[in-house]
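Section 3.1: Structural characterization of target chains.
Under the original work plan, the team committed to producing a structural model for every single-chain target entering the pipeline before any wet-lab resources were allocated. The record below documents one such target. The sequence was received from the expression subgroup and is listed exactly as submitted; it comprises 123 residues.
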Amino acid sequence: MASTAPSLRWRVIDIVTAAILGVACGLIFAAWNPVGGAAFDVLGKVLPGLSGLATGIWLLGGTLGGYVIRKPGAAFFVELMAATVSMALGSQWAVETIYSGLAEGLGAEVVFALVAYRRFNAT
């Protein structure tokens, strides 16, 4: 009898998909960096804490990677790849972008690990 449980081992297609998602998210981050940085400052002056609305886009890589690939390390890898691409394209935060990517990827990875990379379907 074949097991219906999904494999948590990485396949070549998983690695390629993660790399493509990471680069795509990195391009989105690079475009958002000047806009998000300015919005963060403006929203923070309007109401402290409101500036967090501008930071949500930077969590896209880990969330998307973990959701699409559903393998251990996927969220971390995609977020770190996106941060690296964003930094390489000239982020105003330079190497701090990598540190943020590490933290954001690790945070997303912990959440996916807590639910054991399960799929929550309606059926």
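The two ends are 23 Å apart (CA to CA).
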